[in-house]
Amino acid sequence: MSQLKAPYLLFIGDAKDPLSIKMARSAADWSPEKCLGELRLDGCEVTTGCTAMSLDEAVSRGAKSLVLGFANSGGYIDSAWLPILQQALASGLDIISGLHDRLNDLPELVAAAQSNGCTLHDIRHPSAKLRTGKGYHRQGKRLLTVGTDCSVGKMYTSLALTKELQDRHIKASFRATGQSGILVAGDGIAVDCVVADFIAGAIEDLAPANDADHWDIIEGQGSLFHPAFAGVSLGLLHGAQADALVVCHALGRSSMRAIDDRPLPSLVETIAVNEQLARTTNPQAKVIAIAVNTSAVDEAAAMAYCREVETQLGMPCVDPIRHGVSRIADKLNG
């Protein structure tokens, strides 16, 4: 992947759903030093918390890239955005996109990029040659975040754990498997755009053999229980060959994301199925903790839920935002 140039201007369009700007929010939260500001259109109802500014203002302040920081249904590039993208290229900015539609499939953008010496980065689409997985034992330690559903905090938990371990001077690397994580880390592979036969092999390459005391913290995707994304989750699980798994969950969610009348699995079932399937490539794989998004309830209810889960399962249960991840890291440092 070509080098992503910072600082970024985060383009969030006219987004109305906070989850729809996950990519922009990820960069703002985890790489604030790379984010100059946000570009919003009329009707936008959400924010990254970055300073609002125009394209011209951002260029004058030293912006190097325009980031398409949102995700719409289908991941398409709206024709209404093309004038903004062309203006960005004319101003000398690279464009970074995590959408399914490719910037490089649009001739007018390719021509504008070439004319202005800019680069179009389609970070969701892997360019490296991939291979099938082998499942052979490899040195090093690996942790994978898994979930009861999509959008339950797997990336946040992975990033928080990586930082916590690094703060403890433990060798650790974040391995990004989605477009938001790639924007934060600067590299990685968007596993949902990998051909199914090559998913496990792609993750083996992403988190290869390492020092015996080094932790790769691998960002999980989807859920084994989600009809749309279970295939991606399984390939990732096998390729990770994880020693430790952390189950991520959203408290209060009544149905799986984007599917009506499909309740989330229990934590007990989620643990059992993930451990069973993870042991295909690592017989010692084990769930060590629960990371739960408790934003739907107040602090007292969040603490009560976490205590109940800990009593039931005999492992740490924390909200990474409210409580931090130190107790999970303790399990890796033991």
From TrEMBL:
The D-glutamate N-acetyltransferase-like N-terminal domain, residue ranges: 54-126
Gene3D superfamilies assigned: NAD(P)-binding Rossmann-like Domain, P-loop containing nucleotide triphosphate hydrolases
Domain D-glutamate N-acetyltransferase-like C-terminal span(s) in chain numbering: 132-328
Pfam families: DUF1611, DUF1611_N
InterPro entries in the cross-refs: DgcN-like (IPR011669), DgcN-like_C (IPR035086), DgcN-like_N (IPR035402), P-loop_NTPase (IPR027417)
Protein origin, superkingdom: Bacteria
Protein name in the entry: EBNA-1 nuclear protein
Source organism (scientific name): Pseudidiomarina piscicola
